[in-house]
Amino acid sequence: MSHRGSGYRGFVVVGFSVVVACSLARPAWATLGNFKTLKEAYPGKDAKSYSCKICHLNAIGKKGELNAYGLALQKLKGEGNAKVLTADDLRAIEKDDADGDGMSNLDEINAGTAPGDPASVPQQ
């Protein structure tokens, strides 16, 4: 019986440790609020236009894994201040070409391509 009880205690300790670690971790930069802001600033786009890959390198946005567009927004807002983006923030860099592919960020957003990925260019 004591063997079974110690296993249970270990499980509880590990579970509690995971909960504490998650609650202390910094939130990811890609937030639901930022998705809402993107949709409000650029309504009526295809669903893929609102993915994490707009600003992040991967499909799941993680802090520190920003693409060129995400880095441009971070630079605009200042390190640590880009967790809450406004439509004005997005519009402030519309004319820029964050990924250097010859298309403006706005042209890429309107075309449904990624403004932070130089390999993702609108069809002409």
What does this structure look like?
- The protein has a domain at 27-111.
- It has 124 residues and is mostly helical.
- The chain has five helices and no strands.
- Mean pLDDT is 78; it is low at 14-29.
- Helices cover 45% and strands 0% of the residues.
- It is globular and about 60 Å long.
- It has helices at residues 2-24, 32-41, 68-77, 87-92, 105-111.
Mean pLDDT across every amino acid position: 78
| Morphology | globular
Q: What is the N-to-C succession of helices and strands?
A: HHHHH
Strand content: under 5%
Radius of gyration, in angstroms, nearest whole number: 20 Å
Question: Helix- and strand-based class?
Answer: mainly alpha
Quick rundown:
The chain is 45% helix and 0% strand.
Q: SSE layout and pairings?
A:
Elements: H1 2-24, H2 32-41, H3 68-77, H4 87-92, H5 105-111
List keywords for this structure.
124 residues, mainly alpha, globular
